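hey so i finaly got around to running the thing on Helix-turn-helix transcriptional regulator from Flavivirga spongiicola. pasting the sequence first so u can double check i didnt mess up the copy paste, my clipboard has been acting weird all day
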Amino acid sequence: MKHIPILNIQQFEQNVPMSDFYSNDLKSHLEKNKDFFHKPHRHDFFLCVLFSKGSGIHEIDFNRYTIKPGSVYFLRPGQTHYWQFDNQPEGYIFFHTQNFYELHFSKSKLEQFPYYYSYKNTPTLHMDSNETKRIELIFGNINDEYRKNLPYKKQKIASLINMAYIDLARHYSTFEATKDITSVTYIETLRSLERSINIHYKVEKSAKFYASKLNITPKHLNRIVKTTLGKTTTDLITERVILESKRLIVHSNNSLFTISETLGYQDYAYFSKVFKLKTDLTPLEFKKSYQ
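ok and heres what it spat out for the C-alpha cells, dont ask me to read them lol
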C-alpha cells in the first residue's frame, strides 16, 4: 500500500538543533527539498509561507490556489499539499509545533487566528506590494534569529511569530469572508469537535455521538457549528470522511471497496452515493479525473 509521507521538523534541518521550529528563505528551502515538494505530502507541524516572487499552483487537500507575489499560506498538521511552480519563487517559510507557540503564550491558542481557527477557513490570503514588504521584514527577522545562537533565542522567535500572526490575522479578517465570532466557548467547542471527528470519523458518523463526547446536546452542538461555520455537525463529519476518501483514492493502491470499508462503509454502493452527493462524482469518476 502506498502512503502519503508525513514529514517532521528534524528532517529539514540538522545544523540547527531545534526540534520544534524551522525557518529558511524559500529559494534555499526548495533547493534542499527539491525531491518531494512537488509530490503530495503531509506535515506534523504548523506551516506558514510567504511568496514575494514567483507563480504557480499550491494544492491543499484537493483545493487549488494560485501562487503570486504577496501570497501567504497557512497549513495545519495533517493537511496534504504540494507545489507546482512556473518560475523560481522567493520568500520565506517557517514551521513550528503547537507547543512551541503556546508554551510562550500560555493564555493564547493558535486557533485564535482565523486561518488556523478551522479547517473550513481559507488557508491563504493575498497582500499588496507594500504590505508584502512590511511582512517580509518580519519573516526575514525570524529567519535571521533562527540562524544565530543568541540568548533568549526561542523567546525572540516566538515573539516575532506572534507579531507576524497578528498582522496577518488583521489582513485576513479585512479581506476574507470570515465570521465575527465573539464567543470563546464556541471557538473552544468547535476546536474540540474537529479534534474528536479526526479521531472517530471512520467509525462514528452521528452528531449525537460527538455531542455526547462534548457533554452537550446535539441541538446545541448544531447551533454552534451553524453559527461559526454555517454548516451542520453532520456536514463536518461527512466532509472529513470525503476528504480522507479522496486522499486514499488518489494516494493509495487500495481498491475502492477496501477504501469504503476502511472509512466505515461496508456497503460500497452507499459510500459511492454519499461521495457523489458531496462531489458530483462517483469515487471511480473522481479517481479518473484526478489522474
